[in-house]
Structure formats: structure tokens, C-alpha cells
Amino acid sequence: MLDREGFRPNVGIILLNHRNEVFWGKRIRTHSWQFPQGGINYGETPEQAMYRELHEEVGLVPDHVRIIARTRDWLRYEVPDHFIRRDARGHYRGQKQIWFLLQLIGRDSDMNLRATNHPEFDAWRWNEYWVPLEAVIEFKRGVYENALTELARYLPRLNQHNRYLRSGLRSHHHQAGRHEEVQPGTENAPTESKDADTKPGSNQADTRHQPGSGS
Asked: What is the distance between the alpha carbons of residues 2 and 30, in angstroms, rounded to a whole number?
């Protein structure tokens, strides 16, 4: 389902834990990390699509989260021609996305990367809110920065010191990551199997967090 300009409606999900860290998923069989996202089916609202994608990619249901905010308008990115399937070239340009900011009210153990027969991620971790955008495929970085910036004002206040709330919005040039970092040069193109964006990668999977490990 494309609009008149060739963009497919899509949702993106920024999932927070109680420390305002975000869910960061590793695309299956690649070293590319990203937020959950997926296309909006015909007849779905963005919110309905968000809950469906949340379950398909992360294994969570509506009772596990609460919606904090969403972006006001569509955020768009174009996909380079060499990442588009041949039969889609000429009329498919990329994605237009509504982004949701969610709070996890369930437990880490509620997450299940194998909730369907077609998993999108094979590992995950919690990352500080300002994710290292250099780990994201280049043509998506602008949308990620715009979504994080727009939704940052809605971050829940923490009892402990939170330098991001005190210092305001920051540039993506500051890398964050309390856990393991993705090294420069390892960010392969993600396999956009649901969105017809990219071709599958083949790098060795990161085994720090196995599916369903909840850590």
C-alpha cells in the first residue's frame, strides 16, 4: 500500500524501560541495530499497526506497555535504488512513519523475539535514549534523529539524576550505549523483509542476548 508519492505507511516504536533506556534490536543475521518498525496494513490505524508490530517483533501485548506520545506528522525517508526490489523500482520510494514512544510496564522476561515464525531480530539490549546513530543504516538516520528529538520532551522524569533531561536535546554526534557498542564499519544494510526495502545480510549473529533472554 503506497501513497501517491510512492511512500509506504509505516510505524516506528521507541520502547522505554523504567530507566528511560530504549529497546535496541539487532536485525536477524546481520550486525545492524534498530528500533522495531513495520508497515501499516490496509484498514489499520497507526496505533493498531503499532500493537501488531510490537507483538510480532518483540512479543509484547497492549497490557505490557502504555503509550506516552507519538509524532505529530509523518516522518519520511527514501530508500536508495540498489536496496529496492527490481519489481518495485519506479513507483516505490521509501517509508513514511508515525513514531510511538512507549513505556514498558511489564517485565523484560515478557519479551519474546520468536513470537512468530518470521522473527525480525535475533538479539536485543537496552540502550541509552540517544542511540548511536552511526549503527543505523545511513538512509534512516535522519528519521531516527527527528523522532528521538521530537519525543524526547515526553520522557518520564526519573528520581535519579538524568543528564538528558537537564541538558535538553543533543546532537547525534554524541554516542551512547551503557552496554556493548557496535563498532564502526559493521553496520550492514538491514533486511527490510516486511517493507521491501533491503536485501538480506549474512553476518554472524551477536549472541550477547539470545532470543527471549530478557536482559
From this structure: 27
Pairing between β-strand 22-27 and β-strand 33-34 as defined by DSSP bridges: antiparallel
Per residue in 116-140, pLDDT (tens digit) is 999 999 999 999 999 998 888 899 9
Residue 130 CA neighbour count, 13 Å, CB half: 17
Please state the φ and ψ torsions of residue 134, each to the nearest 5 degrees: -65, -15
Q: Are 79 and 92 in contact (CB under 8 A)?
A: yes
Residue 159: CA atoms inside 13 Å, Cβ hemisphere, count? 1
pTM equals 0.74
Question: Are 56 and 38 spatial neighbours (Cβ–Cβ below 8 Å)?
Answer: yes
C-alpha distances out from residue 90 to 7, 58, 64, 81, Å: 12, 33, 41, 9
